[in-house]
Write a structure and sequence with these properties.
CATH superfamily of the largest domain: GAF domain
Shape: globular
CATH class of the largest domain: Alpha Beta
Radius of gyration: 20 Å
Number of strands: 9
Largest sheet: 6 strands, antiparallel
Helix content: 40-55%
Distance between the termini: 44 Å
Strand content: 15-25%
Number of helices: 9
CATH architecture of the largest domain: 2-Layer Sandwich
Length: about 250
């Protein structure tokens, strides 16, 4: 693809346009989209027409732009994510009924926690996890469980890129990761919301590494936590079995 005067390719600009949308900005004006994507406005208008025609973006009645349903359709064809979600949903529903709190399924992707599925409950505590949303590794029990059960090269690579941030929040990081591995789960109080505790259990593959993580968020100091952790550990083993030898511990 031809490069722009700035040196980025057409694909680079298309990806930045799609990546400009997030949970806080599900719709954008064209000017805001151009600014967030760092793409000239005239180029944004031209690319926007092509993206809308292919269903990757959509225009609202007021002229605002949002992600199109075609993206959702394509994303849901991902075999690994589809298989993981299908295997996990029955177990997630059981936990959701038992604990009465939101239940999440996530993976480690591009140095973030990427939420694959979330089941909500009326009256449950506040929870910042959103499907297809990203969360910081160092501020979530999900991220810490995933990191604790990552291959050495993944862990060391992550720490090389983000060690300063991690050590600010977790000055005894390696001790914490070792403790998570000994316990088989991670729990952290109030890193994102001060009134909650997150609990997360890794879903292990046949090498003992986390292919995904299952978690709940409960009220701080809740008596639900021990039962939630037990349910998560049972469910994680069941999901690993359902995924087959490639993911089973």
């Amino acid at each position: 693809m031809a490069n722009s005067p700035s040196g980025d390719s057409m694909l680079d600009r298309l990806v930045r346009i799609l990546d400009a949308f997030d949970a806080q900005n599900p719709t954008l004006t064209v000017n805001a989209l151009a600014r967030r994507a760092d793409v000239p406005r005239a180029t944004t208008y031209r690319l926007l027409e092509n993206l809308v025609s292919h269903g990757l973006l959509a225009r609202d009645a007021d002229g605002q732009v949002r992600l199109g349903l075609r993206l959702w359709e394509l994303a849901n064809r991902s075999a690994s994510t589809l298989n993981l979600r299908q295997a996990a949903l029955p177990f997630m529903e059981d936990i959701n009924q038992l604990v009465g709190q939101n239940t999440q399924l996530a993976v480690l992707h591009e140095d973030d926690v990427l939420v694959i599925e979330r089941l909500s409950r009326p009256g449950s505590v506040i929870n910042q996890a959103n499907v297809a949303g990203r969360m910081p590794v160092h501020l979530t029990s999900m991220g810490m469980a995933l990191l604790a059960y990552s291959p050495t090269n993944v862990l060391e690579g992550y720490l090389e890129r983000h060690g300063e941030t991690m050590l600010t929040q977790h000055p005894k990081l390696r001790h914490e990761l070792a403790q998570i591995r000994r316990n088989g789960y991670a729990t952290f109080d109030g890193f994102i919301d001060t009134s909650t505790t997150g609990a997360a259990v890794p879903i292990l593959d046949d090498r003992g590494y986390a292919s995904a993580v299952l978690s709940v968020v409960v009220p701080l100091g809740s008596d639900l936590l021990p039962a939630a952790v037990m349910a998560l550990r049972t469910a994680a083993r069941g999901i690993a079995r359902a995924l087959g030898p490639a993911a089973e511990n």
